[in-house]
Specification:
Blueprint: E1 5-8, H1 16-25, E2 29-31, H2 34-45, H3 55-74, E3 80-83
Parallel strand pairs: 1-3, 2-3
Helix pairs in contact: 2-3
InterPro entries: NadR/Ttd14_AAA_dom, P-loop_NTPase
Domain NadR/Ttd14 AAA: 6-82
Pfam families: AAA_28
């Protein structure tokens, strides 16, 4: 992993999303948690790639999105802060 990459970790409800949002507001490169977006999108479309419905499909989507986020981050300059990251190459 790059020495410019940082991962925010912590339990549910401790403020990871709030911290990432504030850091982005101040101009830092941030990447939100992929799981939250997948759940929101799947619920909106009536999909089943959800951790309580089809864990494998959910995990595959998380992996795909996290790999894409990591690849995109490599092209950015300066620090990049990830809100959780499934893949740490």
């Amino acid at each position: 992993m790059s020495d410019r990459f940082f991962v925010v970790t912590g339990g549910p409800g401790v403020g990871k999303t709030s911290l990432i949002t504030e850091l982005a507001r101040h101009g830092l490169h941030t990447t939100p948690e992929s799981g939250r977006a997948i759940i929101r999108e799947e619920m909106a479309r009536g999909g089943d790639a959800l951790p309580w419905a089809d864990r494998m499909a959910y995990a595959e989507q998380m992996l795909e999105r996290d790999l894409r986020a990591y690849s995109t981050a490599q092209a950015l300059s300066g620090p990049v802060i990830f809100e959780w990251l499934l893949v740490i190459p």
